[in-house]
Amino acid sequence: MARSYRIAVVAGDGTGPEVIREGLKVLTAVSDLTGFDAELISYPLGGEYYLKSGEALPDSILEELKTVSAIYLGAIGHPDVKPGILEQGILLKIRFALDQYINLRPVKLFPGVWTPLKDKTPEQIDFVVVRENTEGLYAGIGGNFKKGTPEEVAVQMDVNTRKGVERCVRFAYELTKNRSAKKKLTLCAKTNVLTYAHDLWVRVFEAVGREYPQVTQDYAHVDALVMWMVRSPEFFDVVVTNNMFGDIVTDLGAMIQGGLGIAAGGNLNPQGVSMFEPIGGSAPKYAGKNVINPLAAILALGMLLDHLGEKGAALRVEEAVKSVTATKLKSLAAGKMGYSTSEVGDLVVEALKTTEAV
Ligand code: IPM
Ligand code: MN
Predict the structure, then answer these.
(1) Hey, what domains does the chain have and what are their CATH numbers?
(2) CB distance 247 to ligand 1 below 6 Å
(3) How far is the C-alpha of 144 from the C-alpha of 250, rounded, in Å?
(4) pLDDT digits (tens, 9 = 90+) for 27-38
(5) Among 75, 129, 301, 314, which residue is least crowded by beta carbons within 10 Å?
């Protein structure tokens, strides 16, 4: 029997539907080439849905999302909805409710792609950030005291649990063990200031590390890490960090790999349902113009396939994107690619046919 998957598709807002359309084109092509079936279940979530129904993500849909093989997300964010409502009500709600405790963000310079880092090559910009995705400052614990008065106090707690830190660090070690010849794992924290929370990270990092003698342990304070990311990105193989630092350093990562047009990520629950997305936002000013770059969404689809165990299909998607960046696109920026959004999708589909089956 053919391998078959049920994939929930949340195209979302702004340019989300355009880039997801191209990703699904690639899915159809690669599933034909490599022989698996994908049943798509679309959910019309996003700003329009919220404005009409008053609900960002109904419980009934959340329950259905818990039953699929994976979730493919476009973008969330609508100009008529107050910032935060959709991000928290959809994106963060799914991450938390489905316990997607890893946010996996590859930082990889593809051939032919312009990087703002002078003289750096694809060999030198190729690492992965493992971001904790369900705790830290994102836990939403805190409050205000004397709100609106000159004496106001605002507290937002940084939650670090032994369980949360350990499962994240362990995932990072496993990844490092298998990813490249470097086998180096960098813990990114701020132990010189966050002496309680990040002491926990260090103790867990060292304890779990004893189970991985083949992995070299490395440490960088977050402020130093961002300097090294710019100066010597070749220094890194896998970086593991907390939710807030991971959010920030991966935007820098996106820039050094050529921009949000090509940066993809996965929200993983290795024991449950994971969600894959281009990490750029909904870019409302480009919506509906067929100018946005769909490669990030296509690479997110590649990550989704890899996660489902369709390694051959995932590799072929990545190889196809590589050949398109190397030989076709003028730039990765919206409107400057030399092709429209749908033409870039077609180019990837075309390139897929000439990739080797593995
Ligand atoms: C990201 C985004 C989200 C985050 C926002 C939209 C809540 O910036 O996926 O990196 O902070 O995690
Ligand atoms: Mn972010």
Answers:
(1) 1-103+258-358 (3.40.718.10), 116-135+161-256 (3.40.50)
(2) yes
(3) 30
(4) 999 999 999 999
(5) 314
